[in-house]
UniProtKB/TrEMBL annotation:
Keyword entries, A-Z: NADP, Oxidoreductase
Domain NADP-dependent oxidoreductase: 22-165
A Pfam family reported for this protein in Swiss-Prot or TrEMBL: Aldo_ket_red
One GO molecular-function entry: oxidoreductase activity, acting on the CH-OH group of donors, NAD or NADP as acceptor
UniProt record similarity statement: Belongs to the aldo/keto reductase family.
Protein name: NADP-dependent oxidoreductase domain-containing protein
InterPro entries associated with the record: AKR, NAD(P)_OxRdtase_dom_sf, NADP_OxRdtase_dom
Organism: Octactis speculum
Length: 171
């Protein structure tokens, strides 16, 4: 089954990179994680991170619920958001991006100093309990992303508002 294949790949990865101290997975479901982690005598290095789609525009779970994060944390994994600004998402999440970006810009304008919509989106990711990876062709955007995100906190009401904007997980 799926677990057997994943375990075989993981064993090969461990054998091919013996000096590696940390390994990660991408887009693993709770069931796939359990298949790798449970009763696995070949497991020498547990995955430390699961890279998942996680953004204001798309985060599995009900509004305000971080069940996806909690499932990973319960298994000892950090979630790292890919597409933390929603740009690589499809379906309903992609169609909802203009609404999400407008709301994030509006929220950011309430802070002193004002924050960009992108900074608000990245702050939501961090404050929800995930890490993020991002890129930009513009150095100024990267500097903003990597400095301003960490020098303020969103209010509980702003977190709740932004959490409520996500597209349905099945979309």
């Amino acid at each position: 089954g799926d677990s057997e294949g994943i375990r075989g790949q993981w064993a090969a990865l461990q054998a091919s990179a013996p000096a590696t101290t940390s390994l990660a997975v991408s887009n693993f479901s709770p069931e796939q994680l359990d298949g790798l982690l449970a009763n696995n005598p070949e497991l020498r290095r547990r995955p430390v991170l699961n890279q998942l789609p996680w953004s204001v525009a798309y985060h599995p779970g009900d509004a305000g619920s971080y069940s996806c994060l909690e499932e990973n944390q319960r298994r000892g994994l950090q979630v790292q958001a890919w597409a933390p600004l929603g740009g690589s998402l499809g379906g309903a999440a992609q169609r909802g991006l203009p609404r999400v970006r407008a709301a994030c810009t509006e929220v950011g304008a309430r802070y002193h100093p004002p924050r960009s919509g992108a900074v608000v989106q990245l702050r939501w990711v961090v404050q929800s309990g995930a890490a993020f990876t991002t890129t930009s062709r513009k150095r100024a955007h990267l500097e903003e992303d990597l400095t301003e995100v960490f020098d303020f906190e969103l209010t509980e009401s702003d977190m709740a508002l932004l959490s409520s904007l996500a597209a349905p997980a099945a979309a």
